[in-house]
Amino acid sequence: MNSFEKIYEVVRRIPKGCVSTYGDIAYAAGNPRWARVVGYALHVNPDPATIPCHRVVNRFGQVSAAFAFGGENEQIRLLRQERVEVSDDGYVDLEKYRFIPLL
Q: Known catalytic residues?
């Protein structure tokens, strides 16, 4: 299994109504130094319907300005649709909504 497949496998496990960080995904995929690789993988997500990349935010809880599937407003819309509170400036409370996937 290549690195992108490992990343997609982990992202699929993020429950509806939760978010994980790029670093959380990297760690659970087997390499804590892959946070940027996670970003690249999500940017070319082959199946956004089953790989919920909108549930991945940065280490501060901020949505991606470069969300590949409609921009940050679309990522915010998708998260709010799942009842995740997103501030007007694009932040999610990680204390409340963070899901940390296990290895």
A: 53
